[in-house]
Amino acid sequence: AALALKEVEREAAELAKEVEEQHLRELAEARQAHADRLEEYQVGAGTQQKRTSGAFLAARSVLKMKLEVVNANMADLQRRFDARESREDDLHQISSLKKEVKEAQENHRAQHQYANQLKLQLNNRDENDKVFGGKAKAAEGMGSLRGSVKKGPLSARSPEGGLNPVRPPSGANLASMGAGLWSLPK
């Protein structure tokens, strides 16, 4: 019996050893199969990536060519637009606007000149008042100076003692310059 027990133990040990070896072989085969499948997937993924990359590069070059065509068309249109003849209504409008600008500049110059004349007249009146102010007050006792005030378009004083409205220089179109506030003598 002891011998049979040792025999059974030995057989069990051999059987366990065979099972363990079988298990290690199957594990190695499974690892190899896994490595082979992983390599296949990597090769397939690399091929797919190469295809995708190639398609992307092709799309990029097509887009670049389309952009070059659009830019060339744009440059051609710009060149043609710059070289085109002006339309008749454009020329008419440009001429009209230039004429308006010229008139406005002339009116501005006339108004400036007129303002300078008024300023000089007022300064001259003030100087005259300083020089002849005392004599004018003394002369009021002898007679009225109102009769000696010059009447006309450039008179500086009204008979009431205030400023007379003064006419602007001839040819000035004050209404178009917004100077409708002038009250001209009648």
Task: Provide a descriptive summary of the structure in words.
The protein is mostly helical. The chain is built from two helices and no strands. It starts with a helix and ends in a 44-residue tail after the last helix.
Percent helix among the residues?
over 70%
Number of strands: 0
Q: Report the end-to-end length measured between terminal Cα atoms.
A: 159 Å
Specify Rg, calculated over alpha carbons: 56 Å
Question: How many distinct helices?
Answer: 2
Low-confidence runs of at least 5 consecutive residues: 141-167, 174-186
Largest sheet: none
Overall pLDDT level: 78
Taken as a percent bin, the fraction of beta residues is under 5%
Helix and strand sequence: HH
Structural class: mainly alpha
Outline type: rod-shaped
Give a quick precis of the structure.
This protein has helices spanning 2-83, 88-142. The chain has 186 residues and is mainly alpha-helical.
